[in-house]
Amino acid sequence: GGFPEAFLKPAKAEKLRNDRFDLVVQEDLRDLSRTNSIKDLKFLIELLRERVGSKLNYANLAQDLQVSPNTVKAWIALLERLYIIFLVPPYSGKLARSLRKEPKVYFYDCAAAYSKDQGPILENAVACALLKHCHYQRDALGKQMELYYFRDREKREVDFVVTKNRQVLWCIEVKRGDDHLSPHLRYLHERLKPKVSYQLVKNLDRPKQIRGMHILDAAGWLDTL
Question: Higher pLDDT residue, 183 or 5?
Answer without folding.
Answer: 183
